[in-house]
Amino acid sequence: MEELRIEANGNLGPIDSSRIPRYAGAATYARLPRLDQVDKADVTVVGVPFDSGVSYRPGARFGANHVREASRLLRPYNPAWDVSPFENIQVADAGDMAINPFNINDAIETIQQNALDLTAAGSKLLTLGGDHTIALPLLRAAAERAGGPIAMLHFDAHLDTWDTYFGAEYTHGTPFRRAVEEGILDTEAISHIGTRGPLYGKKDLDDDHRFGFGIVTSADVYYQGVLETVAKVRERIGNRPLYISVDIDVLDPAHAPGTGTPEAGGITSRELLEIIRGFRGMNLVGADVVEVSPAYDHAEITGVAASHVAYELVTLMADNAMPGSRHKGGTGYQAQSLGQEVRRPAGFAAATKE
Ligand SMILES: N=C(N)NCCCC(=O)O
Ligand SMILES: [Zn+2]
Ligand SMILES: [Zn+2]
Predict the structure, then answer these.
(1) Which residues form the signal peptide (predicted)?
(2) CA distance 333 to 203
(3) Which residues of 115-146 are buried (b: 16+ CB within 10 A; e: fewer)?
(4) What is the pLDDT of residue 329?
(5) Ligand 1 atom at minimal distance to the Cα of residue 249
(6) pLDDT for 223-236, tens place per residue?
């Protein structure tokens, strides 16, 4: 079958869903071309089928393909930014990494090497699927590409700064303690967002604080709202090279049932998408969306949420790549909006390019 794609500015975009039904054919993220169908990519989407680091329900090894399937309904124009991300930059799907499920050390090495290979020619990386163990090798690669420690925003119900499980150092509950120990994070500029749920003890927070993490709890997002959350985060991170790691369990189980370690009382998908939109102009160098476990999903709720989160992250990368902001933070709704159009946090204008 011929692939009828949208093309603009020399970028090969998604299969045109007005000419080929969106439910037809093999799934790539957002129906974008495969990496082998383009000369170069500005952003590479890659799946990480790995879940050998989980402490509870398995299944995140199937996450990437679930997100790809759920991403068929994404459309090419993002009105919340007034941006068509796939026109601005070339985004392509590199398929899945081939990872050893029986040897975590080997898996981590492979993920790090693949991440370095995929970014060697200057592409940014957005990874889908996998359990949170994979953030460590992805951060190593991102820090190497950035030439030093990087800022990080970690959306998660959990801290993931625990020490070991059953004596194992590399698990989905420990990546960020390892990352701090390895000196790959800029500890002046790291924060969790959406934290909640029972811990093992107060020491968990004492350790986490010592490592340098700030925390915006799920309750903080509720009480202070999206705007203040974004403002505080922007103040802490500034223009540093930033990695965003999204554990889909940051969302309430009502918004993301398909995950391995669900915790009640999470943020909504609307809040998460709006917080990311508030990061316009920030220096995003890489991102992941992890812990999607399709066997526990219903009606693709989690897959759809994850596919939209990834879409906002790609839009941020694409918006930054534009030569000068055309929109100064506006949305596509502006001309006809009966709502509150100007709702941008302090610090937003300063970081938005002229
Ligand atoms: N990274 C995720 N999703 N979960 C970590 C939970 C660690 C624990 O079971 O205590
Ligand atoms: Zn996590
Ligand atoms: Zn989590």
Answers:
(1) none
(2) 47
(3) bbebbeeebbbbbbbbbbbbbbbbbbbbbebb
(4) 67
(5) 3
(6) 999 999 999 999 99
Residues 6 or more apart whose Cβ sits within 8 Å of residue 149 = 143, 183, 184, 185, 186, 187
- What tokens does 246 get? 């999204």
Tokens of residue 261, six digits: 């370690």
Q: What is the 231 CA–ligand 3 centroid distance (Å)?
A: 24
H or E element, residue 138: helix 135-146
Distance 255 CA to ligand 3 centre (A): 14
| Cα–Cα distance for residue pair 323/121, rounded to 1 Å | 20
Indicate whether 68 pLDDT > 50. yes
CA distance 260 to 53: 11
> How large is the average pLDDT for residues 65-77?
98
State if pTM tops 0.95.
yes
Side chain identity, residue 262: P
Q: Which residues are near ligand 1 (CB < 6 Å)?
A: 55-56, 132, 158, 160, 172-173, 247, 249, 260-261, 291
Our mutation pick for probing the ligand 1 site, out of 56, 131, 207, 291, counting the most ligand atoms within 8 A of Cβ, is 56
- Residue found under tokens 């000369």: 39
Residue among 266, 245, 243 at smallest CA distance from 254: 266
| d(CA 323, ligand 3 centre) in Å | 36
Rg of the chain over all Cα atoms, to the nearest angstrom: 19
At 345 the pLDDT is 61
Residue 354 above 60 pLDDT? no
pLDDT category at 331 given cuts 50, 70, 90 is: confident
Q: Residue 328 pLDDT more than 70?
A: no
For residue 212, what pLDDT is reported?
Answer: 98
132-183 residue pLDDT tens: 999 999 999 999 999 999 999 999 999 999 999 999 999 999 999 999 999 9
What is the rounded CA–CA span in Å between residue 219 and residue 223?
6
Name 91's bridge partners.
Answer: 43
Measured distance CA(313)–CA(224) in Å, rounded: 23
